[in-house]
Specification:
With about 625 residues, the chain is of the alpha+beta class. Strands 13-21-20-18-17-16 form a six-stranded mixed beta sheet, sandwiched between helices. Strands 6-7-8-9 form a four-stranded antiparallel beta sheet. It is built from 20 helices and 22 strands. Helix 2 packs across helix 4 and helix 6 crosses helix 9.
């Protein structure tokens, strides 16, 4: 062996790894570079790979490679026992893999030896799979998060489609997208399909809704090129530009509807079928708090949505042939048709089926309007408008005719008329004010409580019929013996409001007592600041982050009484549960309101308790189509 660089005269085959490691660690970088140069040219048999592992050069199994770590330099083996690289050539970007010390790898002769030895820069996809994706699965922002994300962007632009698609499939299952809630300022990580790109229309549409999160684009601090690549990548992974379609099992399709989709053919034996029907994220909250600005925003969203946005999917097969597929209007399109969310030319709030397209306010952008959207909204035909103007009557579709007849029948029943002076000052008179009552609260444990949907807020639809539409003249004549519904409604509303206000104050006292020792807690009473109809009454924040949303339900009855919850409130609880934040949503049930010993039963994560059978959601309204 050449002794010019000071290699001792003994057989390297007999050296143990420890002796080699200790010897080489004592040598400077310059010596190691010269060592590589000599053995590269003079002794290739010592380092080349053989046709079989047993024929490999001995140096392939010795710690001849110098790497630099946070603890200093050290000598490592070039390959693992299975032949995979144990160390890599330096990469352009910082890598989690061990790499050859930079000033050695920069030397032309040393680099040529290392390349011939079989070392390469680290494989970007291997690094993402081995080091980055496991950390992204935690849903946390760790120190190298933004550097790792740049590597993901780089990987998304590679020509190797097989590796690229594999990484994207894994990323779709990770809560890796840093996002924020524009209503609360909360930041978190979610899966791509649970997040939105911020837009003016979505921001208005989701106002009063605490469950929408947007990509925190500015926090990624990317170049213009990389930012464009980030947006393209997130779009591919289903970050949404439109309200998310939420899969629901509550489809309106009947057995007969499905038969019609199958061209009236019966299902043969052993047939598989599946219905994919959808609600729309935030639609109920938007409708509950509708105004002109929200109406315009929702209209703009629908106008720009893809053609298949409003469709559900019905699939079936008898296992002997391919899966057949038909589309149908999704469940949320029924609400879009029947709910009053549009404004006509006179600024009246109406449903699409109540007006013709020409009666729509000019504030709506109708340029390039798709026929598919007009079909979804189902505006009243212009011919019907002409009939109503000519006859002075009101056209009632056949699917609403039975409902109209029932209403007219109820109107004609003689009732004792309530006089206005008999209802004045009527309301709730508690025996004890909230501050006088004993504070008493507990969390729901193994007992059951029944919560049913509020009939007044549930949307009802009537059965479709094959008969023709009917034109009915509206008869509004009433007698002195008929009931004054307005007076009764005001009486009921005042009573319920007084009871609700009592419970609201009582819960506020309980919250102040629970958190009085924690100066970092902020208790926000939404009703006091004029934010109503948003699905909760209190927001509890700690250091600015929401830790609890509370909806208050109050009754003068004792524990066990059925309570009401609106569709909006139940949907918000479900949305928090869907993104693994169900524990943030609570229902505080106040019993014995106005008594000396009322009780608050606190229901944390009602959706989970419902799924676990500890809470009963008692259905009152259902739709048969």
């Amino acid at each position: 062996m050449n002794t010019e660089i000071g290699i001792p005269e003994y057989d390297l085959n007999d050296l143990g790894n420890k002796i080699v490691k200790e010897f080489l660690e004592e040598q400077p970088d310059k010596w190691l570079i010269q060592f590589y140069s000599v053995i590269h040219k003079a002794a290739p048999a010592l380092w080349r790979a053989g046709t079989r592992p047993s024929n490999n050069g001995i140096l392939r199994t010795k710690p001849i490679i110098r790497v630099e770590t946070s603890e200093g330099t050290k000598q490592v083996l070039p390959f693992q026992s299975n032949g995979k690289p144990n160390v890599f050539l330096p990469a352009k970007e910082h890598t989690k893999y061990a790499t050859v010390k930079l000033n050695i790898a920069k030397n032309k002769e040393a680099k040529k030896f290392l390349e011939d030895l079989g070392l390469t820069p680290p494989d970007l996809f291997a690094e993402i799979n081995e080091f980055i994706i496991p950390k992204l699965r935690t849903g946390q922002t760790y120190p190298d998060y933004f550097e790792d994300f740049k590597k993901i962007i780089e990987a998304s632009q590679t020509a190797n489609q097989e590796k690229r698609n594999s990484v994207i499939r894994d990323l779709k299952e990770c809560p890796f997208v840093l996002c924020y809630n524009s209503q609360t300022g909360e930041t978190k990580h979610l899966k791509a399909h649970e997040v939105y790109f911020l837009s003016d229309n979505l921001k208005v549409y989701f106002h009063d809704n605490f469950t929408a999160f947007y990509v925190a684009e500015e926090q990624y601090d990317l170049s213009i090129k990389n930012k464009a690549a980030l947006i393209a990548l997130l779009k591919e992974m289903n970050v949404s530009e439109f309200p998310i379609k939420l899969l629901t099992t509550e489809t309106y399709l009947t057995t007969e509807d499905k038969k019609q989709l199958r061209a009236k053919s019966d299902l043969p034996d052993r047939t598989w079928e599946r219905v994919s029907d959808y609600n729309l994220h935030g639609l109920n909250t938007c409708f509950d708090n509708i105004n002109f600005e929200k109406s315009i925003a929702l209209w703009n969203i629908l106008v720009s949505a893809p053609d298949d946005y409003s469709l559900g999917k019905y699939e079936w097969t008898n296992y002997s042939s391919y899966i057949r597929t038909k589309t149908f209007p999704a469940k949320f399109t029924l609400e879009l048709k029947k709910s009053p969310w549009l404004y006509d030319a006179n600024e009246n709030l109406v449903s699409p089926t109540d007006i013709t397209f020409s009666q729509l306010s000019e504030q709506y952008n109708t340029k390039n309007l798709k026929n598919s959207l007009l079909a979804v909204l189902d505006f009243k035909p212009e011919e019907i408008k002409a009939i109503e103007e000519r006859t002075g009557g009101k056209f009632i579709p056949v699917d609403e005719y039975e409902k109209y007849k029932q209403w007219k029948s109820e109107q004609n029943k003689p009732q004792q008329k309530l006089k206005k002076d008999e209802t004045e000052d009527e309301g709730f008179t508690p025996e004890y004010r909230p501050e006088e009552a004993e504070l008493n609260s507990r969390e729901l444990d193994e007992v059951d409580i029944t919560i049913e949907f509020n009939q007044q807020q549930a949307q009802t639809e009537n059965n479709n019929d094959d008969t023709t539409n009917n034109e009915v003249e509206d008869d509004n004549n009433t007698t002195d013996d008929e009931i004054d519904d307005t007076i009764i409604e005001k009486l009921n509303q005042k009573l319920l409001k007084d009871i609700g206000d009592w419970g609201q104050t009582y819960v506020s006292l309980d919250l102040n007592e629970e958190f009085r020792a924690d100066p970092e807690i902020e208790i926000i009473d939404l009703n006091n600041i004029g934010k109503t109809g948003v699905g909760c009454d209190f927001v509890i924040k700690k250091n600015g982050e929401i830790i609890r949303l509370i909806e208050v339900k109050t009754t003068v009855e004792k524990f066990g009484q059925t309570l009401s919850i609106s569709g909006t409130q139940w949907e918000i609880a479900r949305n928090y549960f869907r993104v693994n934040d169900g524990d943030k949503y609570w229902i505080y049930c106040v019993f014995n309101a106005g008594q000396e010993y009322p009780e608050i039963v606190k229901v944390k994560n009602p959706i989970q308790k419902w799924k676990d059978g500890k809470l009963l959601a008692h259905p009152v309204n259902f739709v048969i189509k």
